[in-house]
Amino acid sequence: MAKKGGFGGGMPGGMNMNNLLKQAQKMQADMQKQQEELETKEVEASVGGGAVVVKMNGKRELTDITIKEEVVDPDDVEMLQDLILSAVNQAIRDIDEMQKSQMSKLTGGMNLPF
């Protein structure tokens, strides 16, 4: 007679719900720790040959902006604005990539939403 499935019988492959729950809780705790570590990291993005440099932390907060004096042209404010936008957007992309890379290491490549 074949065994009937159910909650008390365990899962295929010898894994039971308690082990699965413990693994999920550990992964959640590891992910939380990883996120906290990422928030303390900083990226630097430079555009225009170093004309504008921004620094951003893992919380996506700008921590520093450096603008070379020679790019401050009152007759071409739009260029400076474009450089700043470009640098900030690059820093955001760098933070995203850093987070994806770290989470991928933690999840073993599983494509999980964050």
TrEMBL record:
Residues 33-44 have a biased composition (Basic and acidic residues). Pfam families: YbaB_DNA_bd. The keyword Cytoplasm applies. It comes from the Bacteria. Residues 25-44 are annotated as: Disordered. Its main location: cytoplasm. The keyword tRNA-binding does not apply. It is found in: Cytoplasm, Nucleoid. Keywords: Cytoplasm, DNA-binding. InterPro entries: YbaB-like_sf, YbaB/EbfC. Binds to DNA and alters its conformation. May be involved in regulation of gene expression, nucleoid organization and DNA protection. Belongs to the YbaB/EbfC family. Homodimer. NCBIfam families: DNA_YbaB_EbfC. This is Nucleoid-associated protein O0R46_00170. It comes from Peptostreptococcus equinus.
